[in-house]
Design a protein that fits this description.
By secondary structure, the protein is an all-alpha fold. It has one domain (50-294). It has eleven helices and two strands; from the N terminus they run H-H-H-H-H-H-H-E-E-H-H-H-H. It has helices spanning 2-43, 46-68, 77-91, 93-96, 105-123, 135-155, 162-190, 205-225, 231-259, 274-277, 279-294; strands at residues 194-196, 200-204. Helix 2 (46-68) packs antiparallel against helix 6 (135-155), helix 3 (77-91) packs parallel to helix 6 (135-155) and helix 9 packs antiparallel against helix 11. It is globular, with a radius of gyration of 21 Å. It starts with a helix and ends with a helix.
Length: 296
């Protein structure tokens, strides 16, 4: 009997070890391919940047609509996708149609006061009904708008030349990835005090603060090699990323919890969906881009 018991233990150990290793390598390979794709798309040229972020934004919108469809039948999926594509094209209108972009500084300031703040208030339990936005419009604002800020900033020659813009945006993504990674590592190591247990039980104050501190260190390193911004501005951008990137993660977790799903999709093996991978961009991008415009 003991031999059978120990044999079963060994089998279970082997099974879970193999599954863990498979998951690790799946995540590692997907993550490596993701980073290569992102860095290449951002730095290659204008068209690779536009194509990459347009595709990400539209895939994120489709993913959002697919999730909402599970509970909300009154959704205009195809018209929403068309409107999202039109908004992306109009954001880069100066290059596509030789016209001025429909998004300007005043428009961004107005949007940053309305939609991102609305999401933050909703996150903190304020009695604001989601139905003030139709599901179709909400998806566009939630999934398309953050990437439109990045597209507008990159394509707007009135602020920086495109090469400088691409390096700044690449630095932004390094900060987002760093904050996610270090917040997770610090959280699982010493995290004891829950940050927002109602929405995300695994997040801790220790992880949040650790993410801020470590991301500030990464900002210093980035400022040495990416001199398009002064060091103080990289540190401010890092702080915005740590605060609003975490809030964006919590907002996305709030939606997934309300819908009863673990991941927003499965397009990235081992990492979930587009919205899972880019949740740190959803709220941080509008604030970062607005700050970058203000310092010019």
């Amino acid at each position: 009997m003991k031999e059978v018991y120990y044999l079963n233990v060994i089998r279970k150990f082997a099974f879970y070890s193999i599954r863990t290793m498979n998951n690790f390598w799946t995540r590692a390979l997907t993550g490596a391919a993701f980073v290569v794709l992102m860095v290449s798309g951002i730095l290659w040229n204008f068209w690779s940047f536009i194509g990459l972020f347009s595709l990400i934004a539209l895939l994120g919108l489709w993913e959002f609509y697919s999730l909402i469809e599970q509970k909300e039948k009154d959704i205009r999926k195809i018209p929403g996708m068309i409107l999202g594509a039109i908004l992306i094209a109009a954001t880069c209108g100066k290059y596509f149609f030789q016209t001025n972009s429909i998004i300007n500084i005043h428009g961004i300031q107005l949007m940053i006061l309305i939609f991102p703040v609305f999401l933050i208030l909703k996150l903190f339990g304020k009695n604001i009904p989601l139905k003030i936005f139709s599901p179709t419009l909400f998806g566009i604002l939630f999934s398309i708008l953050p990437f439109c800020y990045l597209l507008f900033y990159y394509s707007s020659a009135s602020y920086y030349i495109s090469e400088n813009n691409s390096r700044i945006i690449l630095g932004l993504f390094f900060l987002i990835w760093s904050n996610d990674t270090f917040a997770y590592l610090v959280g699982i190591s010493i995290g004891k005090h829950k940050l927002f247990e109602r929405i995300s039980p695994k997040k801790s104050w220790e992880g949040f603060i650790g993410g801020i501190i470590c991301t500030q260190g990464i900002a210093y390193i980035i400022s040495i090699y990416f001199t398009e911004l002064a060091p103080i501005h990289w540190h401010v951008v890092a702080l915005i990323v740590s605060v609003f990137g975490t809030l964006g993660d919590l907002v996305e977790s709030m939606f997934k919890r309300n819908l009863g799903v673990k991941d927003s999709g499965n397009i990235l093996p081992g990492h979930g969906g587009i919205l899972d991978r880019f949740d740190g961009v959803l709220l941080s991008a509008p604030f970062v881009v607005t700050y970058l415009m203000l310092i010019r």
